[in-house]
Amino acid sequence: MTINRSALKTYAPKARKDFIAAMVARAAKFGITKKQTLEAREQGDLIIIGSEAFPRKIAEPRRKLISRIKLHGFDQAMEEVAYTWFNRLLAIRYMELHGYLDHGYRVLSHPSDKAIPEILEHAEHLDFPGLNKGKVVDLKLDGTKDAELYRMLLIAQCNALHRAMPFLFERIDDETELLLPDNLLHSDSLIRKLVTSIDEADWQEIEIIGWLYQFYISEKKDEVMGKVVKSEDIPAATQLFTPNWIVKYMVQNALGAQWIATYPESPLKAEMDYYIEPADQPDEVRQQLADITPQELNPEELTLMDPACGSGHILVEAYDLFKAIYLERGYRLRDIPRLILEKNIYGLDIDDRAAQMAGFALLMKARADDRRILSSDTPPVLNVMSIQDSKGLDADEMARTLVQDGRYELVPSDDLLPETVKQPMLSGAPVADDLQGVKEVVEIFDRAKTYGTLIKVPQSVTEFLPKVEAIVDPSSDGGMFVDNAKAKVRLFLKQAKLLSAKYNCVVANPPYMGMAAANSDLKKFLSEEYNSGKIDLYSAFILRCHALTSGRFSMVVQHSWMFLSRFEGLRDWFLSNASLSNAIHLGPRAFEAISGEVVQSVAFSAAVAPCDGYLANYFDATRGNSEDKRQGFLARRLPQFRISQGEYRDIPRSNFVYWIGERTSSIFRSCRSLESFAKPRHGMVTSDNDRFLRLWWEVDFSNANLKCHDREESVSSGAKWFPYNKGGGNRKWFGHNEYFVNWENDGAEIIQLAADKYGSPSRQIQNTQYYFKDGITWSSLSSENISMRSNGPGFLFDSKGNSMFFDEGVDQRVYLALCNSSVAAHFMHMLAPTLDFNAGAVAKLPVPDEVENGVPAEVISSVDQLRSTSRADWDTFETSWGFKGIDYLHPRLKDDRISVSIRNFLEYWALQSDSSRELEEAINEAFIKLYKISGEVSDQVTLREVSLARNTSYSYDSGGKPEEIDGRVIGDIVREFVSFACGCMMGRYSIAEPGLIYAGSGNEGFDPSRYGAFLADDDGIVPVTESEWFDDDAAVRFEEFLRVTWSPEMLPENLRFVAESLAANGGNDPQKTIRNYFSKSFFKDHQKTYKKRPIYWLFSSGKLKAFECLVYLHRYNESTLSRMRMEYVTPLQSRMAARIDQLADDIAAASSSAARNKAQKERDLMVKQLEELRVFDEELRHFADQRITLDLDEGVKVNYAKFGNLLADRKAITGEK
Q1: In angstroms, rounded to a whole number, what is the distance separating the alpha carbons of residues 245 and 255?
Q2: From CA 249, how far away is CA 429, in angstroms rounded?
Q3: How many other CB atoms are there within 10 angstroms of residue 36's CB atom?
Q4: Which reaction does it catalyse (predicted)?
Q5: What is the per-residue pLDDT across 967-977, written as a single tens digit (0 to 9) for each?
Q6: What's the pLDDT score for residue 406?
């Protein structure tokens, strides 16, 4: 039955808060808070805390709690005790519902849904060890002390479970009992919430424990993600519950594969749905496998370790498979559980609570097969534990305590005593080797809660472990201090033995955490101990799992290790030290608890011995959700590939591209790389983008230079801002020219910052000799194929906008064509499967020698056409500095009706898009022939792949209905038209001249004579009010713009078309629709177009919109606010006051209640608006008096913040909280 995970997801995070709050409240009762700890005074049989008296017996638990808080901190201590009680109650709930409690009664609930737990009804019949039956009877007979009785019974139940599960149920006479909350029988108690929040049916499978654990820590995980993770937070940051089918795959292809290799006819094979049958192997591989495969296996000697066991999901699955193996070998079912727990299954984790749950889950599996196992006189000893830290312990003192008296040797003597009498050694000095051995066993776990099972036990320590075991033998009594030291060292001894052993199989879903989140201790440790795997915790665990096994290991990890360049060292190590048997490339959405593309995974099984010729099976499960992947794998519908890992050595960086074809592989072996023909280069990192980068429209355009060819020319130009290739989305041939970089005085400021931060600027400012040179640029990060552009000379380039340069005489168009072809896309998916197209990956693109001189002239011509078309496409948008104006105002496209003009425009670009598609296909075909790779690469290009912004098949989601898409396209174009009209109002553009007319600063140099029949606004202030208060507001001027640019006769029809395109049913009242658009939606669209760096700023009186106007950033000066007051705000107040008086007369004269109500409603609103306007006017006057000037070099984000609350959407634009 499927568990209702949504209920668990709702309950568990809230339970964590409730449990912690209950512990905190209980601690406060005993005078312990985060801020202070009250002193306790003993007084007879009582202790006095503050003004409260408590039984003296709480003194010791309270002292222990205080010690725990001093050691771990208040918050951590409360967290620990909270999860201890949470785990205990989960365990009891599971056991009571499965009938696993010896007395047969429910402890937390009642089978008849009564409000009181069933155990209370039978309290007098219980026979818990140490339970005071007389007191139980007295409390029961009293009838008013059920809460006290229940607390007593619950503690007794926990103590009774201690014998079988000491790891979860410690003897409750400590601080955890002290913090057990009161009011356990209340309807809102922790216990009642647990019982009522989760249906009993959901408790049928032990898997529920793992899900509850994951959801319990989910909010803690959210808190620490994205930060440097403290040691105590590593579990929360890294725990991830593995889907059951992936666990089955890993266990069956490690333990199951080990068994089947020795017993190929075993019936077990038919029971393992996720087992992958090995491919037929070459003769030499078969012989190698035969040599290393044991002829027989003893089930009792088979071992499986999970070094990151979490809540035990993998171990539980391994239990089932071990059980099947034992049954196949004829063992009695009742004997099997103990054998599995004590001899076969091993688990370690860094997290105490997770290890508790893992041990519990295994015991529950065993209890299902052996009802005696929990009540046995000798409970099974589990090999599952949480790694404990020795930090803070004095290893020297512990060693001296244990290695002291009792070490003797024969000492020659001249006195009366014969030589045969034993004498103490040299003043009883300890044996040095024993001291050192004990000390090292303790010290290797000094950072165990940080390093966990990645800790390696040195061979010298491993060899000494038997001696240490003898030293800490509990059978010899040494007194309290010695026994205490022995107990502590025995714990570390067990950890050392588990970590130094070899296991037949290791299976793990290790923690995922990149080094950006790692603390300094962990980073240093990984660099020293796991250099090949230091990039991530999971990659270090690949090395660790290999070291722990003598046979096979299976893991599920992020797929990045197979492909990313920074894992090249790990791949090289793997190829030399292990052998992949099979893998399922899971891709995104394999883990149901994680949506989107965040975690992309691969599950694999490998043998510990390398074998280059072994043909491994790979399944591509990168599409669909977890259930789609599971079903596809079970039905073997997934794309399947077979490849020997030796073939990866032929691929640059040894990428594990399992789908590689034979011809592709041979090309990698035989061809030179692109770096032999070109110079792909990594760009600069400014170290402070907010300071040095601007979207080009933010700054004074006259202070920019777009035409420099080298650094010397940039200096002599005196300019501050220069074009900057910074990457962008998928776009070929031309475009993504949006950014300027401050490279004034040859980048003096950027270089100085880099030098100050890193000691040398060359670490961040690289390849400066190529700045401003003509080359090819591309986005290093992509969600699709690589796409390259030729933007011409004059650019600097970014680390995410890598660029490629060529020697003089080389025709870069050849390589632009190649890199934008399907052939390059094919190879780049081998070189950069994660779509990280960095310069290093691009440099390894294989290029046959024929490309250098054998590319047909038609390809060059096609590149010219494609680049020209892409540039024209880019320049149709006003966010391009090459924008000339609205294309459909040109006579070749223009009609008297805007609707027809836009249709002509769309038809033109549909033809251009299809022509580009044909040209790209011709380029693909040419390179497929040059590479002789027709069987593995297609020349086909769909219209959706033609990356022109005016290609609607590319720019708009193809999933909608054609008429819906058509409506969106038309709507967007009309919005662009309205924006252009606003630009003409502001003086940015003109209908008399093409291109950018004014983008200076402070209105200096503004020439009103350049605007022809449609004049620019006098001051760059354009009102956008809901009512027509001014004759130069945006709606009025837009209507004028239509009348001037199209014929006056067609004005009504054109207005209607614009209105219908802006809003549904907008044509019913076109003027009102257009006015509403300017008032309510224009600025939102403007922000989106200009990427939250608007050039038309919206000054607003507030929510009631009494007054709003747009101000053109580049025409703003220190007198703009004063002019806004005089020309608009002050007159509007008078007009509003007059309108309010008029409405009062209308109300008095109204002939109907409807007319009266309408006038009253309008008047009430206007009264409020007038008040808002007066408040706005006061603030406006305050800022106007300051005569604020703008430094456009500071950018919109900084400048927008200078006007307080006068501007709309301030937080969205400035980024303020």
Answers
A1: 15
A2: 56
A3: 8
A4: a 2'-deoxyadenosine in DNA + S-adenosyl-L-methionine = an N(6)-methyl-2'-deoxyadenosine in DNA + S-adenosyl-L-homocysteine + H(+)
A5: 999 999 999 99
A6: 43
Taking all residues of the chain, what is their mean pLDDT, rounded to a whole number?
92
Interval 329-361: pLDDT, tens? 999 999 999 999 999 999 999 999 889 999 999
Q: How confident is the model at residue 744 (pLDDT cuts 50, 70, 90)?
A: very high
Measure the CA–CA gap between 391 and 414, rounded to whole angstroms: 48
Distance from C-alpha of 758 to C-alpha of 752, rounded to nearest angstrom: 10
Q: 928-957 burial string, b = 16+ CB within 10 Å, else e?
A: bebbebeebbebebebebbbbbbbbbbebe
pLDDT tens per residue, range 360-416: 999 999 999 999 999 888 999 999 999 999 988 888 888 888 886 444 343 444 444
d(C-alpha 97, C-alpha 159), whole Å: 19
Find where tokens 């393992």 sit: 272
Confirm if 837 and 794 have CB atoms less than 8 A apart: no
- What tokens were used for 926? 């040419």
- Tell me the CA end-to-end span of the chain in Å, nearest whole number: 46
Neighbouring residues of 852: CB distance < 8 A, sequence distance ≥ 6: 677, 814
Which stretches within 626-726 are classed as H helix?
626-634, 662-670, 689-692, 711-717
Provide the pLDDT for residue 450.
92
How would you write 309-342 as a 3-class SS string? CCCCHHHHHHHHHHHHHHHHCCCCHHHHHHHHHH
Predicted TM-score (pTM) of this structure: 0.80
Contacts with 1036 (C-beta within 8 Å, 6 or more apart), sequence order: 1028, 1030
Distance CA 113, CA 75 (A): 36
One DSSP character per residue, 530-553 reads -GGGTTBHHHHHHHHHHHHEEEEE
Q: Where is 818: in which H helix or E strand?
A: helix 812-819
Interior angle at CA 437, CA 432 and CA 441, nearest 5: 150
pLDDT higher than threshold 50 for residue 1117: yes
The single-letter code of the amino acid at 910 is A
DSSP one-letter code for 188? T
Instruction: Determine the pLDDT at residue 304.
Output: 98
Phi, psi of 200 (to 5 degrees): -60, -30
**Which residues share a beta bridge with 644?**
615
Domain boundaries, the chain: 5-204, 236-386+502-660, 395-500, 674-949, 962-1214
User: What would be the CATH architecture of the domain defined by 236-386+502-660?
Assistant: 3-Layer(aba) Sandwich (3.40)
| Mean pLDDT value of segment 229-250 | 71
* Superfamily for the 674-949 domain: Adenine-n6-DNA-methyltransferase Taqi, Chain A, domain 2 (3.90.220.10)
CA-to-CA distance for 580 and 583, rounded, in angstroms? Answer: 8
Decide: 642 and 665 in contact? Cβ < 8 Å: no
Q: What six digits make up the tokens of 204? A: 């049928």
Backbone angles phi, psi at 372, to 5 degrees: -90, -10
pLDDT, tens digit (0-9, with 9 covering 90-100), for 783-802: 789 999 999 999 999 999 99
The DSSP result for 850-878, as a single string, is: HHHHH--HHHHHHHHHHHHHHHHHHTTST
Q: Name 211's bridge partners.
A: none
Q: What is the mean pLDDT of residues 440-468?
A: 93
Mean pLDDT value across residues 311-333: 96
Parallel, antiparallel or unpaired: strands 776-778 and 693-695? unpaired
Distance from C-alpha of 732 to C-alpha of 789, rounded to nearest angstrom = 5
Residue 833's pLDDT is 85
Interatomic CA distance for residues 622 and 600, integer angstroms: 8
Grade residue 996 by pLDDT with cuts at 50, 70 and 90: very high
Residues 6+ apart with CB under 8 A from 205: 1, 3
Q: Tell me what the mean pLDDT of segment 649-669 comes to.
A: 92
Tokens 């035989």 correspond to what residue? 670
Of 1057, 1070, 1084, nearest to 977 by C-alpha is 1057
Closest by CA to 1178, choosing from 1102, 1113, 1119, 1115, is 1102
Residue 752: C-alpha distances to residues 688, 692, 746 (Å): 12, 12, 11
Q: How far is CA 990 from CA 357, 983, 985, 996, 1045, in A?
A: 72, 8, 8, 8, 11
